[in-house]
């Protein structure tokens, strides 16, 4: 029989959104639990850019020092077209803005938020997935399962879906998700390069074909570390997963997913 437990707020999803919410709730003295179906944090850079306003919010939380120590300042962007430099954007802000732009891999943002949350005695309950819920006027009863097959019911005043783009909470509530994926496919890599471009600048290098359309694109975002960048580039047609799935036909397998850069 499933265990039954209760809390004020059940946060589903320990990405940056769920972790920030849980930390803010705990900071305000609200009891909460945070669950994630993954057994461990993913090691990918994913969302790297940290806005000045986010740093202000981290300051309010008491986390800005750790974030700034782990991040690198983002100073601007260099743009190239067909190999020629087109200009340089300097990320200069009015003097009253206390922080600049910074770059920090998402896995580090999540690590810092998780450590911060731990100071309030709250840890992520991992390998634990929300599989269903029912709400009534007094609250929500959520059904969770762990990878070991255990089931549990959590009763909470609020259930908050921070469970990403394929949110089970959103689907369970019958809410729509407007928008869709870009048709372009990108491949991403975290790499160390040896070049003499100035540190702290993103690089956007594009190639235009004779018809004026962009037929190749490389975007590099600085990461903490010596010469480290997160590079994303358009997938050439011969490597396209969507094209390979199309060529294999309807029975040819493939997940049919186009992974667009957000
Ligand atoms: C390869 C890649 C590159 C990206 N690059 C950028 C970028 O350059 N810039 C940018 O702004 N954004 C980028 N993104 C997007 C960015 O990562 C997301 O916007 C961000 O992660 C959203 O945060 P979130 O907390 O809302 O959700 P997520 O980070 O998706 O976290 C949701 C969490 O919920 C958990 N979960 C899902 N379902 C359940 C369930 N039923 N029960 C329990 N747990 C569940 C998941 O395991 C996950 O840990 C990128 C994403 C990817 C995949």
UniProtKB/TrEMBL annotation:
Span of domain FAD-binding: 7-193
Pfam families hit by this protein: FAD_binding_3 (PF01494)
Cofactor(s) required, per the database record: FAD
Keyword Transport: no
Keywords: FAD, Flavoprotein, Monooxygenase, Oxidoreductase
Gene Ontology terms for molecular function: FAD binding; oxidoreductase activity, acting on paired donors, with incorporation or reduction of molecular oxygen, NAD(P)H as one donor, and incorporation of one atom of oxygen
PANTHER family per UniProt: BINDING MONOOXYGENASE, PUTATIVE (JCVI)-RELATED, TRK SYSTEM POTASSIUM UPTAKE PROTEIN
Protein name: Pentachlorophenol monooxygenase
Record organism: Streptomyces parvus
